Structure formats: structure tokens, C-alpha cells
Amino acid sequence: MSPRVVVTAAGVISPLGAGLENFGCALYSGKSALAPAARFPGVTAADLGEFNPQPWLGNKGIRVLDRSARLLAVAAQMALTGAGLSQEGAETGDPDLGLVCGTVFGSVHSITSFDWSGLTEGPTLVNPMEFPNTVINAPAGQAAIKHKLRGVNSTVCAGLASGLYAIHYAAEFLRFGRARALMAGGVEELCEESVLGFRKTGVMSESGCARPFDEARDGVIPGEGSALWMLELDDAAKARGRVPWVEICGFGSAQDAHSICGFDVRGEGAAEAMEQALMFSDIAPEQVACIIASASGSRAGDAMEARALDAVFGDRLADIPLCAPKAAFGEAMGASGAMGAVVAGLALQQQQIPPTAGAGARKGLRISGEAAPIAGEYALVNAFGCDGNNASLVVRLWKN
After folding, report:
1. Alpha-carbon dihedral sign for residues 320, 352, 251, 392
2. Are 75 and 227 in contact (CB under 8 A)?
3. Model pTM?
4. For residue 292, how many other CB atoms are within 10 A of its CB?
5. Domain that holds residue 331
6. How far apart are CA 82 and CA 79, in angstroms?
7. Quick one: DSSP state of residue 356?
8. Which residues have C-beta within 8 Å of that of residue 267, sequence separation ≥ 6?
9. How many domains does the chain have?
10. Contacts of 389 by beta carbon, 8 Å cutoff, 6+ apart
11. Domain end residue (candidates: 239, 261, 295)
12. What is the distance of C-alpha 259 from the center of its chain?
């Protein structure tokens, strides 16, 4: 029998709320973090504004951390504290404690600023202190330094599915005995470069409103943040006296890329990812109690996911409570899948699915602007990207 990987804590920092409790309260109240962004005039976004990590990280060493690293380090601090694994005060840190982070752009603003400085002022005038932040794995590396994480440190880049891929990657490392405990999830920052990317690709909502699965949807709203789960084997958690939250059951992935930036509206890759996740969890579609959708308000992306859901669940789809949380926290890219996983954990723990902010009736889908009860142990989390990366994760409410 495969070792059981469980979640013993979570850290989340987003415009919707800082910390698991605040994030959950805002989500279940139906709050939306989408608003005009002061940092980006004329843009509606789920933006953390002038984010200050000092309440969580203190003053020491934060000057060298860029925005992505600060977001990830804060989420890591929350997860470590919640799991009772903080390395504060330790001389060298635990070699079996690590971090797996999913991201799309990493520290793209730092990369751009460093390169632009070199081009305009000359290579001899660039700030060498900024160089460590110019690689895609800089946030994970900086968080590891900050929290004395000496174990596995990996960065996964798989588009909008990065956060779920990171969770699966970490779970497999634990099953192989390569680590004792791993934080896993994702991070993404909003910056001039990422906002420009949303604009240039034409995916941003012109109305300034995310309407997942709605016939009137007209695009996505960008977001940012970080979410991490603390993953351990169940025996290790029990030995530490920790009661797990949920269990990682099965993961599925499929690639159906057909263009640089365009969903395959047939939904075959998304359907295959969900079917794999169910198969590896050894459950039938009828056992899924709720679905945390990837839908963001994208015209093509939501149509693709709806088609894939119908292919997997058929007539029963209309009876399964579904939440599209990106209506509340925006398209947080590499962090979205991890945030969706946190939402799934909250839904199973409370046996109630959160509302989808601003949702009305959706044909063939049980989606609502009100919280709704669920009955069952399993939740399905989706993260589907326009680059063809499709990932699904099944989690189960912990039971011995």
C-alpha cells in the first residue's frame, strides 16, 4: 500500500485575506478582492497593493527579498508555524524539511529591471544585490534561506497548473522517502510586466468583472498571492501529535497544447487529467462531493472546462456543488491551483462549499452565490492552462 500523504497546515496570503482563517472567512462571506488597482491605473485586479511582510517576517533580511520572494516567505512562515515546524532559533535547520513552489513568471519584475538597467546604464552599473532574484527559482531559494530549509528545494513551471504540479511533485518525494516534510504550492506577483502580458494577449476582462462559466463573461481579472500546504506522511504527523487536515489521494495531468496561447476547446486534455486523478484515487465520479473549478471568466477556457466536466460526470454534474474561486481572488497564475487546493480543504473540513462571488445560475452546473452544503469525503481541484497544461487533484477529508 502506498504511503499516505497528508496536509497538516496551510499558509496563504492573497488580496482576499492573509492567513487561512481570514482567507476562509472572506471566501465564505462571498467577498471579492477584484477592484481598481492603485498600482496600475485603469486596471481592475486582485492586488495586494504596497505589501509589507514585516508583521510575519520581521525586519531582518527582508530588504533583499523582492515581491515574489516576500509573498512566498510569508506563506511559508504561516505553514511552518501552523505545523509546529518553525526553524526559528535553529542553528542550521532541518535537512529533511523543504519547499516545492509552482510559478509562471517567478520574479519577472526583478528580471526585467535588472536586464533593463544593464542595457540602459551599462553592465558595470547594475546592482549586484539584485542578481540573485533574476532566476525563476529565486523565490523558493530566498524562502529557503529565510526559513533555514535545508531539504528539497524545487521550482515547477507548468503554466496555470504549476501549483497543483508542485503539490503532486512534493507528495511523490515524500512517498519515495526523499523528505520528512515539504511545503508545496505556488506564488505569483502582479507587476507592470505581468499586467502588460494580460493586456497584450487580450485575455483581460473589458468590463472589469470575472464571471466564471457565465454566458456574459468577457475575460479574466489578474491576481496575485501565495498558498502553501505542509505535506507529511501520516505516520510522521501522528508521531508529532498532529491531526491531519486532508489527504492527497490522486493526481492527473495531460497536455493538449495546439498553440502558444490558446485553450483546446474540445477539453480532451482536461477530461483526461480529471479521469486520471479519479483513477489514481480509486474512486468513481459519483464519489466526488464537490469541485473546485479552474474557470476564471475566460471565454475559451471556461467553455473548455465545462465541456470536459460534462464528459467526465455526465448527467450527475448538475448535482455536484461547484465553486469557481477565481471570481474572488482573480487569476493568480502559478498560485491559483494551490489556492484552489486550499479552498477544497476548507470545503471538506466544513462540509460546505464556498459561494462563487457574483455567481448566478449556470446551465448544467450547480454553482451559486451562496455557500452550499456538501455530502462526502472527496473534492476535485482543477487547474487548466492555455498552454495545454492540464492538472487535477483529488483530496479526501482525513479519516484514520
Report:
1. positive
2. yes
3. 0.96
4. 29
5. 250-397
6. 5
7. P
8. 304, 305, 306, 307, 308, 311
9. 2
10. 158, 159, 160, 161, 162, 165, 253, 255, 257
11. 239
12. 24
Report the candidate in 278, 286, 259, 252 with the shortest Cα–Cα distance to residue 384. 252
Q: Are 398 and 231 in contact (CB under 8 A)?
A: no
| Residue 288, C-alpha cell as written in the block | 466526488
**φ, ψ for residue 21, nearest 5 deg:** -65, -50
Helix (H) or strand (E) holding 229: strand 225-233
Based on the domain organization, do 169 and 104 belong to the same domain? yes
- CA–CA gap between residue 343 and residue 349 (Å, rounded): 10
Q: DSSP 3-state assignment of 185?
A: strand
10 Å CB burial of residue 96 (0-12, 13-18, 19+) is middle
User: In this structure, what are the phi and psi dihedrals at residue 19, rounded to the nearest 5 degrees?
Assistant: 95, 150
pLDDT over 70 at 361, yes or no: no
Choose the final residue of a domain: 180, 211, 239: 239
**DSSP secondary-structure letter at 92?**
S
Strands 288-292 and 378-384: parallel
The set of cell numbers assigned to 258 is 495546439
pLDDT tens, position by position, 209-231:
999 999 999 999 999 999 999 99
Query: What is each CA distance from 159 to 271, 386, 391, in whole angstroms?
Result: 18, 8, 10
Contacts for 317 with CB less than 8 Å, ≥ 6 apart: 309, 310, 364, 365, 366
Q: What is the pLDDT of residues 5-33, one digit of tens each?
A: 999 999 999 999 999 999 999 999 999 99
Tell me: do 256 and 331 sit in the same domain: yes
The partner residues of 353 in beta bridges, in order of sequence, read 372
Helix (H) or strand (E) holding 154: strand 153-156
pLDDT band, residue 161 (cuts 50/70/90): very high
Shared domain for 254 and 182, answered yes or no, is no
